[in-house]
Amino acid sequence: MMATALICHAGLAVGKTGEATGTGEAAGAIDTIENYQVNSPTMISAGQPAPAHFAAFKAMGVDQVIDLIPGDRRAEQQLVHGLGMEYHNIQVVWDNPTLANFQDYVAVMQQTQGQGERVLTHCRKNWRGAVFTYLYRVTQLGEADAVARQDLATTWQPNETWQAFIEKVKKAYASSPQAD
């Protein structure tokens, strides 16, 4: 999926491993976000952005924000909508991620990716986000597991709960592309 040359998209240069090269003012503004990754020209994942980071993401061409943090997320939703981006909250409980959570994520991603929109997936540390983007890349985009796993591995090594979730999702999508 990643090109070996630099890809320039919406003011952000992306290298072959998906890292931002720091070009453009917007890219510089997000350097402080924990575990920030550019997974593809249309997919970004990160830890919890500060309010100012959302404006930088908008300037970088992000159209959609998928927040994987459970709880009352109205303040973030209002902030994101106020900047002209769409907001989706999929409440993924840390110690109980579910196949239904991932199916909800796939539904949002398929809608946005079909329109060529740039999507930010985030959670507190980008541990949930890294797993969800990894699984989407492997199960939906057909990306090689080893390639997609590199981004996951630079963020964290999934614990037993999350490794079991990964295997459950991969098994469900291997037996049925739609995981119905």
User: What series of H and E elements makes up the topology?
Assistant: EEHEEHEHEHEHHH
Number of H- or I-type helical stretches: 7
Helix content: 40-55%
Q: What are the low-pLDDT stretches, counting only 5+ consecutive residues below 50? A: 1-23
CA radius of gyration is 15 Å
Shape descriptor reads globular
Distance between the termini: 26 Å
Strand share of the residues?
15-25%
Average pLDDT for all residues: 86
For the biggest sheet, the summary is: 5 strands, mixed
Structural class: alpha/beta
Largest beta sheet: strand ordering: 3-4-7-5-6
Q: Strand tally, please?
A: 7
Quick summary:
The chain is of the alpha/beta class and 180 residues long. Helices cover 44% and strands 16% of the residues. Strands 3-4-7-5-6 form a 5-stranded mixed sheet, sandwiched between helices. A two-stranded antiparallel ribbon has the order 1-2.
Sequence-ordered SSE layout with sheet pairings:
Blueprint: E1 7-9, E2 12-14, H1 25-29, E3 37-40, E4 43-46, H2 51-59, E5 62-67, H3 74-82, E6 86-89, H4 99-114, E7 118-122, H5 127-139, H6 145-155, H7 160-175
Helix pairs in contact: 5-6, 5-7
Describe the structure.
The chain is an alpha/beta fold and about 180 residues long. Helix content is about 45%, strand content about 15%. The protein is built from 7 helices and 7 strands; from the N terminus they run ββαββαβαβαβααα. The strands form 2 sheets. It has a 5-stranded mixed beta sheet with strand order 3-4-7-5-6, sandwiched between helices. The chain has a two-stranded antiparallel ribbon with strand order 1-2. Helix 5 packs antiparallel against helix 6. About 40% of the residues are buried. The N terminus is likely disordered.
